[in-house]
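COURSE: Structural Biology Practicum
ASSIGNMENT: Worksheet 4, Part C
STUDENT ID: 0417
INSTRUCTIONS: Below are two proteins. For each, the amino acid sequence is given first, followed by its structure token string. Answer the questions at the end about the second protein only.

PROTEIN I
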Amino acid sequence: MSSEPLILAVETATLSGSLALTRGAEVIGGFNGDPAVSHSNTLLADLDKLLSESKVTLVTVDLFAVAAGPGSFTGLRIGIATVKALAATLDRPCAAVPTLHAVALSGGASEASVALLPAGRGEVFAQLFSVSTDGVVKALDEPSHISPKKMIDKYGSLESVVWCGSGAIAQRELIASSDEGKEWRIPPQTDNLAEHVAALALRNFNEDRLVAPEELHAIYVRPSDAELKVS
């Protein structure tokens, strides 16, 4: 493998999903999905289109990266299964990137970034990070599945916060009504989250923290609706 790996990143944790192809830190191509169409119907076709438009063949990919969750249960399973199959067939290593880490990175450098993703039923997946200017994302607590009110209760005492991700956009009014003069901001939502998955995968590559395809597992944070009904 070259010193600048060709990375194919798959992000199916969010409703629309995204793909990215990078050579080291350079973005070669990207693709944003359609939130109205299931990943199961489009992922392989979207991958083929991205590779074709980027004039890259699948066999030249050095590293497969995937957003491992939390996020859509169905989406995560589709993305991880696809990456597992491709990486195993080509005998390539993988990088499992927690979705909320990628969301935090998308918001830029900050001493306190709260990454938020919609979790269904009006709730959110949330986690607090620090993000350095050179892209080191450090978790400051554990990911949680909570109501927006509890989210404010949990992080509302922080004086300076970057609220990141589609969950922050969805909760913009609540966040704005709760800042009480604090230095809170919500950056624009990233167009392609998979690019940030690829960036974190590159860090895993440089730090020798890659995994075999069979070691990829989803990070769910909460039980699925089916499991909740059984319990």
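PROTEIN II
(use this one for the questions)
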Amino acid sequence: MSYARLDAEGGLQWPCYDETHPGELFLHSRLWEDPVPGNCAPFVAVEHDPPVDRLSDDFPIRLTTGRHLDSYNTGVQSGGYKYPRRRGETLDLSPEDVERMGLREGERVRVVSRRGFVEAPVRVEPALREGLAFMTLHFQDDVATNNLTIDATDPKSGTAEFKATAIRVEKLPAAS
């Protein structure tokens, strides 16, 4: 769209297919038409395939990685600003797992996967269910979280399987 048209109309709702198109009411609105104009999205049903990195007695906890809101897009746009909720890397665990393992908030632990290990402080996260842990990938200079993850990818989408790593949590010896 030309800037002149955008200025004249006060903006356009995307998608807008050409200079004369009025813009869609909402994304994918054409899919509600009968018959659907153009190509439909190529959805393919797939059978559930559990994570490659299986849980076991040696690695009983499922680690999932992600981002915190304050560091979205790796903090490139927000990293230079102070934010009261920003904190360094932690291993977030359910209250049940923290209690079962005899850990306490802030205690540093070793997080071990089949590929490596890192050390991080424990954070109790009541929103996590038992057996599920969470870490971000924001603080690679402090905690190299991706040393734990697997290189497997989904054969259909090519998406990396960073979200399903089998881990164990080890207490570190008390500092003397």
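ANSWER KEY EXCERPT:
Q1: The two ends are 66 Å apart (CA to CA).
Q2: The first strand starts at residue 61 and ends at 66.
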